Amino acid sequence: MASENNGIMMINGQNSLLVTLNKYVAAVNNMNSRIMIPSRLRDMEVTTETRPEISEENNNMALLPTVAPGTDLYNCYIMLNAIRAELINGESRIRADIEFEEETADAARKTAAAFTYHLRGLFNVLHKLTETANYLGNKYESDVGSSSGASLSSFAI
């Protein structure tokens, strides 16, 4: 559920895009505050006892849903930060040449590529919807405003 307060949308729903993006950015920020020396991740191994068990029903586009044994944690750290930077700054910083260990290389590259592809698609659709909303508002004001000869309030029907 969303409510509006002085033109600013307040998002209350757990499944909203803004809430999900905020949770991701907060998780990466938390990760960054806890990892003081990222290069030490190169020496760490993922074991079945320490990896998170995540099961999620989706359309199989999540190619790296859990941290698999043998995953290069340092490069995952780099990729997570690059995705965060792309979300915040709008600039793609995901490197296609990140050298993942052999068994995770394809999955990691596909995951990064799928993220970039879908994020660009989402931005394109949102830009088109924004243009449509601006057009409708302008069209309404120009047509109704010119016929009434008075300025319109946002409460005019």
TrEMBL record:
InterPro entries: Lipogen_MT_Stabilize_sf (IPR053719), Spot_14 (IPR009786). It is found in: Cytoplasm; Nucleus. GO terms for cellular component: cytosol; nucleus. This is Uncharacterized protein. Keywords: Cytoplasm, Nucleus. Belongs to the SPOT14 family. GO terms for biological process: regulation of lipid biosynthetic process. Transmembrane segments: none annotated. It comes from the Eukaryota. Pfam families: Spot_14 (PF07084).
